[in-house]
Structure formats: C-alpha cells, structure tokens
Design a protein that fits this description.
seven-stranded parallel sheet; 17% strand
Length: 242
C-alpha cells in the first residue's frame, strides 16, 4: 500500500485531498493541530493515521513523521499543504507580527515538512518519493491586498525548483500545484470580504477537483513528474491579471 502524509489535513484542500487518497487505497497520515478533526478522519477511514502537530514546530513534526513511517513502513509522498492567508491590506497597513506569522507557517512550516520528507525518502529502501508543494495562483501573480501571502507563495516556487534539482540523485521528484480558487472556508472568507468592500467575489471550483489533481500528480511513476500544475476556476481571470 502506497503512503502519503498530508499537512493541513483537518479542513479545506488538505482534508479533501486526504480523503481522495484514502478512497484510492493509500495509507494517509493526516497532520494538523486540530486533534478532534483528525480523530474523526481516523475513525471514518481504516488507513488514516492521525498526526497532531504544529508545522512550525520542528520537534513535533519530527515525531509525527517518525510515527507515520513506523506505521506505514515508508513515505511515498508528501502533500505539503498547510498554510494561512494572513493579514490583508497594502504593505503599510500590515503589522509585522502578521507578516511573521504568514512566513512562519507558509515558508518555515513547509520547509520543515519538506526537509523531513526529503531525509526519509533519501534513506529509505528503495530510495525515493515525491513531494508536492501547495503553491497558489499567487505564486504567479498577486491578489490585491495580499502582499504577505503572495510573497510566501513565491518563496514556495523557489523551494519546489530547488528540491526538483537536488532530489534527482535520490529519485525524489518535486512538483507544485497552484490552485485558484477551490471552494474552501478560506476562499469563502475572502469572498465575503470582497463583497463587503463592494467588489465582485472570485469564481470558485469544487475542492474535489483540486484534490483529484494532487492524486494524479502523486500516482505517476517516479520516472515522470508534473513539476507545475495550475488548476483554477474556469471563469477566474488568468495569469497576467490580478
């Protein structure tokens, strides 16, 4: 049975993706801070393993990875998904504490997860695996009033490119999925903010479409890699516009 660890698995894209893998017959480590939501997933699916951890805490993450590998035998894939939108507004309206929080979760947290996955995939036998980073359309073009989030997602593109290069010698493939906009609570909150400002809400797509795209990327043999995939609501403005 193939195995994947999904961060930010208690809600939104992470939860939908974890369930898609479970329904496809994978063993799935569902990692998040919300122990009750993880327990509900583990009770529903036989091959779900609940991993309570804060992605920004390296010690907690290491324990979670070790526990999952002890149960699954190896790590075939990581969906590096956990992230937050953070404060909205122009840069001079953003408090530095909010900026630090976004970087802590979206960059440090994803770096820690990727570091642990890369190390496990490098040392396991047979060697190799796949890391899929959750980017965003913000990794290509900014959304108005989202400087912190946009900056963090551009950093993830750099992480993806570096891991793609450094992983070749160890049969570790790395890809990135850039999603806009799956219907999740985070996007609903953003759309509510836009409506309150008298602006048009963003078109959305079913979150299952994003989840199935991640499953497609992960199911490929290690001889093939989708390095960058963009999945977006059809009526969204495309790259080159905000």
């Amino acid at each position: 049975m193939k195995s994947i660890l999904v961060t930010g698995a208690s809600q939104g894209i992470g939860k939908a993706t974890a369930e898609a893998f479970l329904q496809a017959g994978w063993r799935v480590g569902v990692l998040a801070r919300s122990a009750d939501k993880l327990a509900a997933l583990a009770e529903t699916y036989e091959h779900a393993i609940a991993l309570e951890a804060d992605v920004t805490d390296a010690a907690q993450m290491e324990r979670a990875f070790d526990h999952f590998v002890a149960q699954s035998g190896r790590l075939d894939a990581l969906f590096n998904n956990a992230g937050i939108f953070g404060p909205a507004g122009s840069i001079d309206d953003v408090d530095l504490s909010g900026f630090d929080q976004v970087l802590n979760v979206n960059v440090r947290g994803m770096f820690i997860a990727a570091q642990l996955a890369f190390a496990q995939m490098r040392r396991q036998d047979p060697q190799g695996g796949r890391i899929i980073n959750n980017g965003s359309l913000a990794a290509h073009v900014p959304r108005e009033g989202a400087v912190c989030y946009t900056l963090s997602k551009h950093a993830i593109t750099g992480l993806t490119r570096s891991l793609s290069l450094d992983g070749r010698a160890f049969d570790i493939a790395c890809g990135q999925i850039d999603i806009g906009n799956a219907a999740t609570d985070m996007v609903s909150d953003l759309n509510a903010r836009l409506v309150a400002e008298g602006k048009e809400p963003n078109p959305t797509m079913d979150v299952q479409d994003a989840a199935q795209s991640v499953l497609h990327m992960a199911a490929l043999p290690l001889s093939a890699n989708v390095q960058f995939m963009t999945v977006m609501a059809t009526k969204m403005p495309f790259i080159g516009r905000g």
